[in-house]
Amino acid sequence: MTNNDIFKKLRVAHKLRDDDIVKILELVDFRISKSELNAMFRNEDHPKYMECGDQILRNFLNGLIIHLRGPMPKKGEKKKEEKKKD
Fold first, then answer.
1. What is Dmax (Cα atoms) for the chain?
2. What tens digit of pLDDT does each residue of 19-37 get?
3. What does the alpha-carbon distance between residue 23 and residue 46 come to, in Å, rounded to a whole number?
4. Does the predicted TM-score (pTM) go above 0.90?
5. How many other C-beta atoms are found inside a 10 Å radius of the C-beta of residue 73?
6. Beta-carbon neighbour count of residue 74 at 10 Å?
7. How far apart are CA 5 and CA 18, in angstroms?
8. In a 10 Å sphere around its CB, with 0-12 CB exposed, 13-18 middle and 19+ buried, how is residue 31 labelled?
9. Helix, strand, coil content of the chain in percent (nearest 5)
10. What is the dihedral sign for C-alpha 38, 41, 47, 48?
11. Using CA atoms, how far apart are residues 70 and 64, in angstroms rounded to an integer?
């Protein structure tokens, strides 16, 4: 299974549009155009097909975590919240 296959399956499973994927990648400061993104979702035999590299998939997965869970709390913030609850 290629990175492109994984990317396509995640896109379908989470019902993401191109705009959503671009925004998710921006959460981890990774910029990609819609045309580059569409090239990754084309068939392998298409002349404008582009392979999804490890870096793109890694950044997408990291951005998806932030999109679904929210950003990680900074060090010290969690401890302050616990003290307030006591």
1. 62
2. 999 999 999 999 999 999 9
3. 26
4. no
5. 11
6. 7
7. 16
8. exposed
9. 60, 0, 40
10. positive
11. 9
